[in-house]
Design brief:
The protein is built from eleven helices and twelve strands. With about 300 residues, the protein is α/β, with parallel strands linked by helices. α5 links the parallel β7 and β8. The longest helix is centred in the middle third of the chain and has 17 residues. Bound molecules: zinc ion. The site of zinc ion has 7 residues, from loops. Zinc ion (ZN) binds next to loops.
Length: about 300
């Protein structure tokens, strides 16, 4: 079922050329609530998801990467139905999210077996169906460095990456922990050009971003619209600095919608915030439509194809 050069979506294999604007790190169905106890952190309403995603058609977006892992409330059947009802190309994640979310079984499962579980989800299907995951992640870190379990999950993910050719996507949130993630992945022999370091815009430090880029990985600004972490004006300034330094082909954008308050139904900015408010900020800073297309069309096509 797996095929090199193709993008693996919940509705099957897709030629990269058919992808329009694509969000590289989103959630449609997810559950932080079971760990945080905050009901704002639960997205489990399929009809609501379909209604919220409707805005994407109007801005030329044809798909998104849904990086919810099973320990974070992934629901492949719902995702597949949402993809069918909206016509979007949805790439589904596999793996384990970060320490507080891990099932107890992680500690009793050898690294190789963790890798095998991911490989099976990427190549054979999930939950007894033929729906396959199309990306590894989001594989994260909870704090400023990886816990022992997080390191082991990341090493397993690296082995799944090498076995399949699928992209590996991380969140490195609020700390420059992406450098540590990359070092481990390189130790495991992963080609950095198959790695996305996510949440880079939660830690706006130019030297950090350049360290990730120089190592050959993608820098992802994927919390656009999450103004309690950083104002979008600061995000735009940091992104423009990287564009001006010539890194356009290694940058990805998204908005990590995962709270009810992120959705338009609850007064949030919704799934189109990258293409509306944030694009306006980039336009005002002199970024060209061609550069926006590279970050949101060409780069996703390249990085998502196995
Ligand atoms: Zn996320």
């Amino acid at each position: 079922m797996a095929q090199a050069g193709m993008i693996h979506t919940v509705r099957g294999l897709v030629d990269p050329a058919v992808l329009g604007r694509t969000l590289a790190h989103e959630h449609v169905i997810c559950d932080f609530y079971r760990v945080t106890g905050n009901l704002n952190h639960l997205l489990n309403d399929e009809d609501l998801a379909v209604a919220e995603l409707d805005v994407l058609g109007g801005v030329g977006a044809t798909g998104l990467v849904e990086v919810t892992t099973p320990d974070f409330g992934r629901d492949p059947a719902k995702l597949r139905r949402v993809a069918e009802r909206t016509g979007l190309h949805i790439v589904m994640g596999t793996g384990w999210y970060r320490q507080p979310y891990y099932p107890e079984s992680i500690d009793r499962t050898p690294t190789e077996a963790l890798a095998r579980q991911m490989i099976a989800e990427l190549t054979q299907g999930v939950d007894g169906t033929e729906t396959c995951a199309g990306i590894i992640g989001e594989i994260g870190a909870h704090g400023s460095s990886l816990t022992a379990q997080e390191e082991r999950v990341l090493r397993a993910a690296a082995r799944a990456q090498r076995a399949t050719g699928a992209t590996l996507t991380t969140p490195a949130s609020m700390y420059p922990v992406g450098v540590e993630q990359l070092a481990i992945l390189r130790e495991e022999g992963v080609d950095p050009s198959r790695v996305i370091i996510g949440h880079c815009d939660t830690y706006l430090d130019r030297e950090y971003h350049l360290a990730v880029l120089r190592a050959g990985a993608y820098v992802q600004f994927d919390t656009v619209g999450r103004v309690h972490m950083n104002p979008d004006e600061r995000r735009a300034d940091a992104l423009v600095a990287l564009l001006r330094a010539g890194w356009t082909e290694r940058l990805l954008l998204s908005s990590d919608r995962c709270h009810r308050s992120d959705l338009k139904a609850f007064g949030g900015a919704g799934y189109d915030v990258v293409f509306t408010r944030f694009f306006d900020m980039l336009n005002a800073r002199g970024i060209s439509p061609a550069e926006l297309d590279i970050m949101t069309i060409e780069n996703p096509r390249r990085v998502l194809a196995w």
